[in-house]
């Protein structure tokens, strides 16, 4: 199961953490994991290029995390786009991915 943890503060995304593996198919043939990897990598690249100083990125093994250091319009647009993409995957494949949103 892929677990997505979204922490919001004052209605804005403070962090997004993605862990786990969907196990929907054999390793290397898992389209759900491939989709999640694509959207998270794209978001990380956008954050790194467009709003580098606004966030802290972690991408290692089975952990992807973006922690917001300074919330800006651009960083929130990228993070909300990522969340919408992950929610779209969850809508179709909820057996393999769960999103948990918490206001802190």
Protein described:
It is a single chain. The protein is an alpha+beta fold and 104 residues long. It has a single domain (2-103), classed as Alpha-Beta Plaits, CATH 3.30.70.1490. The chain has a five-stranded mixed beta sheet with strand order 3-4-2-1-5, covered by helices on one side. Strand 3 (55-60) and strand 4 form a beta hairpin. The model has no long low-confidence stretch (mean pLDDT 96). It contains two helices and five strands; from the N terminus they run ββαββαβ. The radius of gyration is 13 Å and the shape is globular.
Helical amount: 25-40%
Q: What is the averaged pLDDT score?
A: 96
**CATH homology-level superfamily:** Cysteine protease Prp
**What structural class is derived from the secondary structure elements?**
alpha+beta
What is the gist of this entry?
Helices cover 39% and strands 35% of the residues.
Fold blueprint:
Layout: E1 2-9, E2 12-20, H1 31-50, E3 55-60, E4 63-68, H2 73-93, E5 97-103
Short descriptors:
104 residues, five-stranded mixed β-sheet, Alpha-Beta Plaits, single chain, alpha+beta, 2 helices
């Amino acid at each position: 199961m892929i677990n997505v943890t979204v922490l919001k503060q004052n209605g804005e995304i403070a962090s997004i953490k993605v862990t786990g593996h969907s196990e929907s198919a054999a390793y290397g043939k898992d389209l759900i994991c491939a989709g999640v990897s694509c959207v998270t990598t794209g978001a990380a690249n956008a954050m790194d290029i467009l709003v580098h100083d606004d966030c802290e990125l972690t991408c290692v093994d089975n952990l992807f995390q973006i922690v917001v250091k300074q919330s800006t319009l651009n960083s929130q647009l990228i993070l909300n786009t990522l969340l919408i993409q992950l929610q779209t995957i969850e809508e179709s494949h909820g057996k393999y991915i769960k999103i948990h949103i918490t206001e802190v």
